Amino acid sequence: MENLLGKVSVLACQATYWNCNGLAEPTIVIRGATTLLLAAALAIAWWFGKKFTKSSPPGPRGLPILGNLPFLKPDLHQYFHKLSQIYGPIIKLELGSKICIVVSSASVAKEVLKDHDAIFANRDPPIAGLIGTYGGSSISWRPNGPEWRKLRRLVVSEVMSNTSLDASYALRRREVREMVKYIHTEVGLPINVGDQMFLTILNVFLSMLWGGSLHGDERSRLGIEFRQLVKEFVEFLGAPNISDLFPFLTRFDLQGVQSKMKKCCDVV
Predict the structure, then answer these.
(1) Which residue stretches of 52-135 are H helix?
(2) Is 119 in contact with 108 (CB distance < 8 Å)?
(3) pLDDT score for 30
């Protein structure tokens, strides 16, 4: 950015009647003036873009470029409730270059999520979600369409159907019994119940997919490592990422979320 400002400043200096005194680098004054001009140009572009957009729900005024980001409160549910008392059940918030619609009424939420769910089915996937699902190829982030409906039919018929669940009942019972047996052998010792539950669920999935499971030291070592990877994966998905709000910053990966997610996927 500094190099860009420098080049633009040089061009601005050369294009005016001001004397640059033969300096190879522009002065601090020229740099400051150029920065102000760029900020003004961006603000004007934002204003005209906002002026000519279609009608949208009411909402609080935001700042140019940043929108309502500086005014968000830590307790979002309380903040949204206060806004709903002012602007009604449907509120528009500008988060950077993204527009967020908040629905705070049960009746309106029913219309959005049930009556008109096909219209609102698509979502804006985060950068971390796209990387973690190899370009949004999973059912979670794929846009609503023929491919998504095909995946949904497969999940319903092959994974979540009563026939599939009944077929895997013996596997689930076996793994739960193994967990209970292990906990019984550790009577009097501290046990991380969360780790044991995760290992049991992991073994159920492994048994359903490949017919095998982890046992002994391998179960503890690989299971705990995999749980840590899953924990990091979920944290990267939920972490606020400035590139999601300002897509033109994606290439810079300012917070390192993209590189961390790629590394996590490579390990998996």
Answers:
(1) 76-87, 106-110, 127-132
(2) no
(3) 60
Half-sphere exposure of 106 (CA within 13 A, CB side): 0
Within a 10 A sphere around the Cβ of 182, how many other Cβ atoms?
15
User: First vs last Cα of the chain: how many Å apart?
Assistant: 36
Report the chain's mean pLDDT, rounded to a whole number. Answer: 81
> Is 60 exceeded by the pLDDT of residue 22?
no
- Which amino acid is present at 267? V
Residues 41, 111 within the same domain? no
Host H or E run for residue 99: strand 98-103
Question: Considering the entire predicted model, what is its pTM?
Answer: 0.69
For the chain, give percent helix, strand, coil, nearest 5.
65, 5, 30
Are the CB atoms for 71 and 60 separated by under 8 Å? yes
Alpha-carbon distance of 40 to 46, in angstroms, equals 10
Chain centroid to CA 19: 50
The 10s digit of each residue's pLDDT in 223-240 is 788 888 889 999 999 889
Q: Looking at the structure, do residues 176 and 85 belong to the same domain, yes or no?
A: no
Domain that holds residue 61: 55-120
Can you give the pLDDT at residue 45?
59
